[in-house]
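ASSEMBLY PREDICTION REQUEST
Request ID: AP-0331
Submitted by: J.K., bench scientist
Number of chains: two
Total residues: 759
Priority: normal
Notes: Please return the full assembly, not individual chains.
Input sequences:
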Amino acid sequence: MGGLLVDEFELRYADYSLSSDQEAVRDAFAEFFRNECPSERVRAAEPLGYDEKLWRQLADMGAASMGLPEQAGGDGASLVDLLLVAEEAGAALAPVPFIEHVAASRALAGSPGAPGELLAEAASGRRILALAMEPAGSRSPQLARQLVPGGAVARAVLALDGEALVVVDADEPPSPVANQGSTPLAWWDLVGGRRQRLAEGTLAEILYRRARAEWKLLTAAALTGLTERALGIAVEFAKTRETMGVPIGSLQGVSFPLADVAIGVSGARNMIRRAGWMLEHEPTEARHLVPAAFAYAARVATHGTTTAAHMQGGLGFTIEADASLYFLRAKGWSLLGGDPAEDLIAVADALAADYQ
Amino acid sequence: MDFGQVQLDAEQQAFLDDVHAFVAEHVTDDVLEEERRTGSGFNERVHLALGAKGWIMPAWPAERGGAGLDPVRVQLLDLVTRRSGMPTVTLGTTRLVVKAVERYAEPGLAADVLPGIAAGTVRCCLGYTEPDGGSDIAAAKTRAVSDGDEWVINGSKIFTTGAQNCQYAFLIARTDPELPKHRGLTMFLIPLGSDGVAIQGIRTFGGERTNIVYYSDVRISDRYRLGGVNDGWTVLRGPLDEEHNFGQKGSAVQIGGSSLGATYVYPLQRALDRALAWACGTTRPDGSRPIDDRSVRYRLGQVAMDLQAGLMTPGPMGRVKASDALVHGAAELMDLVGSAALLSEGSPGAEAAGDIEFAHRFAQGTATYGGTVEIFRQMIAQHVLGLPRPAYPGSKVLVSNKK
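STATUS: Completed
Returned structure:
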């Protein structure tokens, strides 16, 4: 049996603690977003969902390159390190294409055919990269044109076309399309555009699947940060808002749903970190962990931001309330990875492989 | 952060082999069958064998009756014995009482009790909940009245699991009804062989046996008092916090799950294992297997996701999540497998060896053990989120005494 249905005699550590270096990374980015990305800045970046100056600042901190190998101009940071950054970016609702760029850049850096100039531009953050979420190409013509997360600010998109990993580039990003999460989405023509082949065959497949798994985990981490911050706002409201002479947070009809959100956040965070660690160290064990972590984080975010907004009553439903920013992005980010039901089916597929 | 397989050195491997050999020798099919039948959470022969190995208090040095195990070995022991299905309920309650005895019992009582606990001849159960009190332990009405250097106990306690196999009950009693609710309580270690103690069994539909214990003019010496008179809440907090996993940091390196409810997840794990085997190994009239059906895979995936969340949600929050995952997951797997899942183990046509059927019944108790999930949600709201505590009329004083 796999890592979920633990073999009675298989002994594994369950050590979720961060190293002091990891804590330093988390704290540095938390401080950066706290100082630089208040909700006014998130609102100012709407509806596109991109703040170029913030992205430049973030790239100057090394966020665009930290996850690349040293020979590609990076710091060789682990996926877990990147998850910590994504969680902080999510908590701040930072209008930057960090996740798309990191997932695509890492696949690019692993490709034998990666053009040196593109890699250098990606490492510096000067050229934003994105990832097509479904395999495209001649075998699936209906997927030749895809809605690409980050696609409205990216000038290069990585895609799987048949047996090749390709990069499609453009001098200017396509026009943004308005969407619920105010995130920079755009339609990309992945077959007809200007393309270069990066990798072939099994390697192309592995690089693409890996990039998509990393995108999902990074998005799951961002959703967890987002949900925890939304919860924090609702908790502060519940501490001070009074009804019938008591703070509403003392009522179990309010406090229990909030406690359930806290339970969901703490579980999602651990599932994501475990899946990220496994993806790096024992990828076959991660087959069911990654989709389970993504589906759980998506559910926790949908439920958590709904609860956080509702616990602020009618006020939480208004555009002025920051709760609205969190609610709209919970679905606006998670659904870009597809219907989470497909991830649950993937969990069962991975588990059933041991019973066939 | 580390989720790798534990690389055991030669000595640790030898220890693990020793634990496996112990389990193979002592946790026999007969023991498991007896546990299924009686649901007592205890087997005296196994318990004494554990004591002989020094494994009841495994971290204690050998001269105290322990085995001097380091934290890694303690966790290996715990993992292998629990997964074997070894009855551990009375072992668990006994260990919870040890710290209070060490800290608060007068030296003579501690010297009498602790060696027996390590050896397995002395077991302890928890006398917290009262028949009309639920999880509000501080509402205890069982009275202890001082009479010279003795105490006279009157009242009743429910869910004193394991009392029929124990020598002592760790009992909370009201010694001053005039003081505020939490301040008029005193803890005792009551010898269950005392005159006036009557133990009456109660069965649950999860298969367990628990008890109601009546105390009628039970006279005990003052030496059985733990801690100061009316200072019982302080004495109780230690074991209670340990049971609830509040106020202490978990060890950085854990083996197995990090959730306080990890043990609740094991029955769901077995049930899901059976359901996967059923889904992959059953042929339907149209020649397809259940696993070929996307809706079946979706439902199995959902149970598996919640199972993982139950294992990985940390500490007291994991206690709630694990119970919820088991309750909902077992019910879902019942529906998935269909009416054959209802059949008891050994019945003709029973699916999944009764494991799903058992999980569905057993699950319901896990929402109550050691404090209900509502108690835990309240603690999470107050201690994790910092929300204000509810202002209930009976939270500081005993309403019934004010009438």
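REVIEWER COMMENTS: Residues 247-252 of chain B have pLDDT under 50 and may be disordered.
SIGN-OFF: pending second reviewer
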